[in-house]
Design a protein that fits this description.
mainly alpha
Length: about 110
């Protein structure tokens, strides 16, 4: 007599859950941009440009294309929403406070 084998269906995942999982795989920390700037100057510039983006979005103005391109160079992507930019800015500020950069003046 053969043993009884119960076949189970794979777990169904909704499209929104699948997208959220894909985002977490692509970027494990949603409060940080895809690329972390390498130097203190680039980190400070990224924080400043993200602040400019937040201000522009809230006032209804548009950010210049050159500024968007510079953000893409520094952090890998220009956030589409002000709330994402604010999260990345606060995340980069925490990185700046935690990181120890070589001080060229020392």
């Amino acid at each position: 007599m053969k043993p009884l084998v119960i076949k189970r269906r794979p777990k169904q995942v909704s499209k929104s859950e699948a997208r959220a999982q894909a985002r977490l795989i692509a970027n494990p920390d949603p409060e940080l941009p895809p690329i972390e700037p390498a130097t203190r100057a680039e980190l400070d510039e990224s924080i400043m440009l993200l602040g400019n983006l937040i201000s522009a979005e809230r006032s209804g103005a548009k950010l210049r294309e050159s500024t968007r391109q510079r953000l893409k160079q520094l952090i890998g992507k220009c956030p589409a929403k002000a709330i994402t930019a604010a999260a990345w800015k606060s995340g980069l500020k925490r990185v700046r406070d935690d990181e120890i950069f070589d001080d060229p003046d020392a």
